[in-house]
Amino acid sequence: MVATAARTQDWWQEKVHTLSLHARVTLLAAVAVGLAVAIVSIAAYMTVRQQMYQNLDDSLTNRVAQAAQKGVLTNLQNLRTVSSDALGLSDIRVGMIGVDGETFGAANSPIPPMGPDEIAIAQAQGNEASLRTVGVRNGGAHFRVVAVPAHYCPLGVNCQANPELYQPSALVVAQSLAPIDRTLHNLGVVLWAFGLIGVIGAALAGNAIARSGLRPLARLTGAAEHVARTEDLKPIPVSGSDEISRLAQAFNAMLAALARSQDRQRRLVGDAGHELRTPLTSIRTNLDLLAQADQRGGLRPEDRQQLLDDVRAQMDELTTLIGDLTELARDTPQVRNAELIELSNVVEDAVIKVRRRAPGVEWDVQLTPFPVWGEERLLGRAVTNLLDNAAKYSMPEEATPHSDGQPSGLVTVRLLDGVLTVTDSGPGIAESDLPHVFERFYRSSEARSRPGSGLGLAIVKHAAEQHGGMIYARNVPGAGAQFTLWLPHAATQTR
């Protein structure tokens, strides 16, 4: 039985889940109202039935008890000669039963059903009465039988002169339950009819509510299908403040975020195509020159070496540009493989790497330990870009170390409480360029004569935002540009 019930429940759930939300709301409303109507109908039916039976029992018991006390019906002569039909009481049967089971009743009328319960009342002669139902509803004879203690005087005996001759018995009256059965039947029909009407009304109301309530959801579904079909990220109109309106607002926010991401990707692809053309064009030009020179007998060794060096430089620039584009194209909101990192070690490694590439720059470095949660590769790339940028602008164009061996530029690096400041000794950043220095592919007029793709500082900002930090730039009086990178302490982050 348990297995059958489980299979039935699984089947029902499977069938319900195949229905649409509209159909499920309608079905839920109909079932809920149906259960409520069924409970109320059953309660009303049982209450009315109980009350009708209780009223009948009280009335019948009182009447039979009074008849037994008055002695009119207990007189066998009266009982046998006057039937209930003669009194217009065809739905009532009257009789008596003695302690030995002998029954008495009207000669031309059926006597009420009598049995052990009534004999027990006759024998007990107490103050209690017996009540029972005989027959079944709509099955023919259906009576409520009441028996009360009584005495009768045998025929041919003068009991008034000698009261001891009265015999103990029970006066039995059977009341037909046909009127009550008809009333209960009519009540049941009415309850069923109104219950059915209520269920149908609830289904119609549920259908209307589902259609009205799910109309915004249908619009939202249509908008989502339209976006999937046409890639048109236009937001949908929102009205109201219910749950579906909040869902529509969230959907619009998602569309806006998707549009921003799509716009960033378009700009990145467009800018990347533009930036990739320059080194590729230079490489192709140099290779064409080499091919043409080889056809004419070749170049001088020093000219050939210069062209090859130029090709290698362009290849290095192209490799760096592709790596930067790959990093920015990820466009993830946060780091995926975060681990506990000592930021001072990351900065120290970056200083060692950049110092080898910029031997003409003096480095003033002071670092204090500071643990962070993050991705070491990305943080190392960001710090290296900051240091490369500072070293590049600290050295004047075409500059070489002084003849006395002194460096031509100075870069100051400080790490204190998670705040990394990198200050160069260059000319600084023009005020009009400060708001744009972290934009992708943005290069000021002064920077266009120097090597670079315009992505280094954009990667720094990208890494800072992914780690929950921030980056900003300013000019320092008496020095050059200063970049400040702040990252949160590992203890303040949950992983």
Automatic annotation (TrEMBL):
Name one molecular function that GO assigns to this entry.
phosphorelay sensor kinase activity
The subcellular location is: Cell membrane
**Annotated Pfam families:** HAMP, HATPase_c, HisKA
- For this protein, the Enzyme Commission number is 2.7.13.3
- Cite the HAMP domain residue spans from the record: 211-263
Q: Which InterPro entries match?
A: HAMP_dom, HATPase_C_sf, HATPase_dom, His_kinase_dom, HisK_dim/P_dom, HisK_dim/P_sf, Sig_transdc_His_kin-like_C, TCS_sensor_his_kinase
Domain named Histidine kinase: residues: 271-491
SUPFAM superfamilies, A to Z: ATPase domain of HSP90 chaperone/DNA topoisomerase II/histidine kinase, HAMP domain-like, Homodimeric domain of signal transducing histidine kinase
Q: Transmembrane residues, as ranges?
A: 25-46, 189-210
Report the GO terms under cellular component. Answer: plasma membrane
Asked if the Swiss-Prot or TrEMBL record annotates the protein with the keyword Transferase, the reply is: yes
Q: Provide the reaction this enzyme catalyses.
A: ATP + protein L-histidine = ADP + protein N-phospho-L-histidine
Keywords of the record: Kinase, Membrane, Phosphoprotein, Transferase, Transmembrane, Transmembrane helix, Two-component regulatory system
PANTHER family the record matches: SENSOR HISTIDINE KINASE TRCS, SENSOR HISTIDINE KINASE YKOH
Query: What protein name does the entry list?
Result: histidine kinase
